[in-house]
Design a protein that fits this description.
Elements: E1 13-21, H1 25-34, H2 37-40, E2 43-44, E3 47-48, E4 50-55, E5 67-72, E6 75-85, E7 89-95, H3 101-104, E8 105-117, E9 120-131, H4 137-166
Antiparallel strand pairs: 1-9, 2-3, 4-5, 5-6, 6-7, 7-8, 8-9
Length: 169
């Protein structure tokens, strides 16, 4: 053993992507909550795009505890808002994965951190994946840092473009 610290097998596998949107933070937040995910999450890296959403019983979307089903080609996931603190933080849990992801990920926590500034709004999208089993942690890491990172980067680029088209400058 080389003495290097290794993460615990059950510890989350994390990945983050960042983009700057050339619009003010409050406007980006409002746009984000109203945004239809199928418009911007079109897929990438082998992760299927979003085809729609279906509200589940509970609070209206945008409030803590709100839930919905994210529909994707070949399946989807359940999403629940854990925190919504305008205009800075949107944190949510995802479970019920389908396809290959169901073999790699038990659940995940996503978050969007909005960083308002004079030159627009920084948007950081972070995912923390809990591996489906400790033995497959290396495969979950590969999924997060290759396939899902492409999905996230393409999604953020599409969010930037759509927000800058929709929000007046």
């Amino acid at each position: 053993m080389n003495g290097a610290a290794r993460p615990e097998a059950g510890a989350p596998v994390t990945h983050a992507e960042r983009v700057r949107i050339d619009r003010p933070g409050g406007a980006v937040w409002d746009w984000f909550l109203a945004m239809r995910p199928e418009r911007v999450l079109r897929g990438g890296g082998g992760v299927p795009g979003v085809t729609g959403t279906k509200a589940l019983p509970g609070p209206e979307w945008g409030r803590k505890g709100a839930r919905r089903r994210i529909l994707q080609r070949g399946g989807g996931v359940r999403e629940e808002i854990l925190e919504a603190e305008p205009p800075r933080l949107f944190r949510y849990r995802v479970d019920g994965f389908s396809g290959l992801a169901r073999l790699l990920v038990r659940e995940a926590e996503g978050r969007f951190d909005f960083e308002p500034g004079s030159a627009g709004t920084g948007l950081v999208w972070t995912y923390a994946f809990i591996p489906a089993h400790p033995m497959i942690r290396p495969l979950t890491e590969r999924f997060a840092r290759s396939a899902f990172s492409v999905f996230m980067a393409r999604g953020l680029a599409a969010m930037k473009q759509a927000a800058e088209e929709d929000i007046p400058s």
